[in-house]
Specification:
The protein is globular and about 75 Å long. It contains 16 helices and two strands. The protein is mainly α.
């Protein structure tokens, strides 16, 4: 008989010891010893909470997903773990085999009743993100040979996409016209908005740019977007000119392409990131000039990305090319613009539809 004295060991050491015994020599109890029963090897239990951590690491390391994406998946799955624990009354001891069709059904019901801080329910698209994360997690378990719910049983809700908000060219011109380019700040703001509209950049891509990121003579550069995918960005002569004017007006040697107005020189950060403009600051800049231009619709940096796409399509660009310039992995994402860019349909209607006599 092997005896292990665990009274003086910490709980974590005891747990690891138990795992080793379970895996290597199987588990025996006193009844087996007395009655001479053969030992039955028992695999150690593994819990959903641990597997979520493994899955998140898998997304970052093996799938190459961004840190932000991995964090979102983790948040959605931890919410599932919490709700499923309440449903099964297992809390922290939830195992993969406990995830059943009934648990999934009740989870979707509870998810639909979750309220945010304002007392409002989760949007359908947010609920879909939870289910996408869960389905990905279940696929991961299946790949590891861990028994759980079939991922194909996780059906996504029908999501009605919001109508795309974009600016017409004259609205973009009005917005640009409100910028005082007689100052360094004004030159910066003009360069920012020109780049957003000319290149179709995401705001996160814009704020990551450094001085040496853009080839102003060739008017093109590479950005790393969602999923760590690289894509080419092409900009207009006007955009390149305003960026050059802004850089010429600067007297610093800091690395970031766009700086905030802080004059804090006490930082030991020689990279200049302490003065790098943030996405939230860019959002405020865009909203400021939209308001001054009298544009009543909600305008954000992403509105200018939408405007970039619709402008290309309205002027005859093909959908595949626009998809590549936006960095969309699925063309169905790009197709959200088509219903607002089929300008020829109006011409067809006016040409062929009969007028009533009034």
């Amino acid at each position: 008989m092997v005896r292990i004295i665990v009274g003086v060991l910490s709980p974590s050491v005891v747990w690891r010891t138990r795992l080793c015994l379970c895996y290597n020599i199987g588990m025996t109890n006193d009844k087996d010893m007395v009655e001479g029963n053969s030992q039955v090897e028992e695999r150690p239990k593994i819990y959903v909470s641990e597997l979520i951590g493994d899955f998140v690491e898998h997304l970052e390391v093996e799938r190459g997903r961004s840190k932000k994406t991995a964090e979102n998946y983790e948040r959605y799955l931890l919410r599932f773990w919490e709700i499923a624990g309440e449903i099964t009354e297992k809390d922290g001891d939830l195992e993969p085999a406990d995830i059943t069709k009934e648990v999934l059904r009740k989870f979707r019901l509870k998810l639909n009743r979750v309220e945010d801080g304002r007392g409002e329910g989760l949007e359908t698209i947010t609920q879909a993100y939870h289910l996408i994360a869960l389905r990905g997690f279940l696929k991961y378990l299946a790949q590891r040979g861990i028994e759980s719910l079939d991922p194909s049983l996780v059906e996504l809700p029908h999501v009605v996409r919001k109508q795309v908000t974009f600016l017409h060219y004259d609205e973009v011109e009005a917005l640009l016209g409100e910028i005082d380019t007689g100052t360094e700040t004004g030159l910066r703001d003009r360069a920012i908005i020109e780049l957003l509209f000319s290149g179709g950049l995401r705001v996160s891509e814009l704020t990551k740019l450094n001085r040496d990121s853009i080839n102003l003579s060739r008017r093109e550069f590479i950005v790393r977007g969602k999923g760590n995918k690289d894509r080419p960005i092409f900009i207009s002569e006007a955009a390149a000119d305003w960026v050059e004017q802004y850089l010429n007006a600067r007297t610093d040697t800091l690395v970031p392409l766009f700086l905030n107005n802080s004059r804090n020189l006490q930082s030991l950060d020689t990279s200049g990131d302490y003065r790098r403009l943030t996405p939230r600051s860019v959002e405020r800049i865009v909203q400021k000039y939209a308001k001054l231009a009298g544009i009543t619709k909600h305008v954000s940096p992403h509105t200018l990305r939408h405007s970039f796409a619709t402008d290309l399509l309205m002027n005859g660009a093909d959908l595949r090319s626009v998809q590549a310039m936006l960095g969309h992995s699925d063309i169905s994402t790009t197709q959200i613009y088509t219903h607002v860019t089929d300008s020829h349909l109006k011409e067809v209607h006016e040409k062929f539809h009969s007028e009533t006599e009034g």
